[in-house]
Amino acid sequence: MASTYLSRTPASAGNQKTFTWSGWVKRAKITDSQYMFCCLLGNQSRYSLIRFTATDEIGIFSGLYTTGSTTTQLMNLQTSAKYRDTSAWYHIVLSVDTTQATSTDRVKLYVNGNLETFDTGTGFHLLPTQNSDTFFNSTYTHRVGSFDGSIEFLNGSMSHVHWIDGTAYDASAFGETDATTGIWKPKTAPSVTYGTNGFFLKFENSANMDLDSSPNNLTFSTSGTLTQTVDTPSNVFATLNPLIPIGAEFSNGNLTHSVTSGGYQTALTTLGASSGKWYSEFKITTDTSYLGMGVVNFDKGNINAISYLGDSTNGVVLHPGANGLYYNATNPSFTTGTTFANGDIIGIALDIDNGFIYWHKNGTYMNSGVPTSGATGTGGFAVSNIANSDGTGTYAFGVTSSATPGTRTITCNFGNGYFGTTPVSSAGSNGNGAIFEYDVPTGYYALNTQNLATYG
């Protein structure tokens, strides 16, 4: 949602003492102040908010609601824990009821069903006074995903966002533990009362992304472009991992990789597999030189295995600007004779079970590759070249690019159906719930948690 947010200004005030915010959030960037929900009257503490802090805690703040220029802090809390996982969804529930007689009962925060503790350090443990009003549910503008509409946007994804006016619910109202997996999961239709200004944003209607699914049917304004994703709390898709490289820039939910200065920077997917058959797509959005896409063996430990020089046996990469050469130390010059241009889509089919990797350009497999050929590996590159000494490994997709002589950008589609913010033009078949530009070979799947559990 970076630079995108929703806003609404209530016509009448609701309950400013008692309320609940519940939302599923997948972060795309850490060490950056990002707002999940904020009501803003002005500066000098005239706002209420819940956010990720620049040091990755969850922060809760409110000034004291008055009709004048508020300068007094009412509430300032910060979690003891930090939240730095960019590969999974967090379920965050803020439950506030300032009418409670016991001060520690007035503000409760839950993450993935667990009651969190607050930092007791100086400046970060101010609980609200009894019966005090916040700015939440006032008649001032409320924003989902930004502080004031110009800064501190949420960089990531959100799903099933509930705002409750007048009731303080705990996390069990919105989530539950799956009896089979033991994983905390959403209640898709919770039994809650929304109150005057409450809403429920599912983000599931691609034609009306800011639709309020609560009985209130409230109207929101959307600033920027909301891009729908099939990545959900129930089925997490691979993205690029921003914790691995140094120097690369990420955007669009960590599916766009850009290098604006310096030499090669490599990024690998957040998910990997040690068995099964997996498919992904990459689109060249600058010229073809000094970039590549391929497969790395996680277990070998060298994150720079996909490098232009091909100086490691950890990974294998296709460099479009090098006339379609595969690189790695044991097979440094396996040419396809294929040329590439800006706008081409390159697909990778990884067959771990039979030990081969296949690349296609715009749907035509290079080197006369046949991904369904099985053990014969027709036209494929042998995974054994990058396997551990015992023939095993955990494999991830990856990209690499260099800013020499200028910015290089690759957009990735691991099944979400977008290259950057542009949807695929003609979805291929056999996606099994994922959306790719070209047909997915029979028996291959998108790299996501449901497919890993079933086919990995």
Estimate the strand proportion.
25-35%
Task: Provide mean pLDDT, rounded.
Answer: 90
CATH topology of the largest domain: Jelly Rolls
Give the CA-based shape.
elongated
Explain what you see.
Strand 25 (345-351) and strand 26 form a beta hairpin. This protein has 456 residues and is mainly beta. Strands 10-6-5-4-3-11-1-16 form an eight-stranded antiparallel beta sheet, with no helix packed on it. Strands 17, 18, 20, 25, 26, 27, 28 and 30 form an eight-stranded antiparallel beta sheet that branches. Helices cover 2% and strands 33% of the residues. The protein has two domains: 5-223, Jelly Rolls, CATH 2.60.120.200; 249-455, Jelly Rolls.
Question: How are the secondary structure elements laid out?
Answer:
Layout: E1 5-8, E2 18-27, E3 34-40, E4 47-52, E5 58-63, E6 73-78, E7 90-97, E8 107-111, E9 114-115, E10 125-126, E11 142-144, E12 156-165, E13 175-177, E14 184-186, E15 199-201, E16 221-223, E17 249-251, E18 256-259, E19 265-268, E20 277-284, E21 291-297, E22 315-319, E23 325-327, E24 334-335, E25 345-351, E26 356-361, E27 364-365, E28 381-382, E29 395-401, E30 408-413, E31 418-419, E32 422-423, H1 449-455
Antiparallel strand pairs: 1-11, 1-16, 2-7, 2-12, 3-4, 3-11, 4-5, 5-6, 6-10, 7-8, 8-9, 12-15, 13-14, 17-18, 18-30, 19-29, 20-25, 20-30, 21-22, 21-29, 22-23, 23-24, 25-26, 26-27, 26-28, 31-32
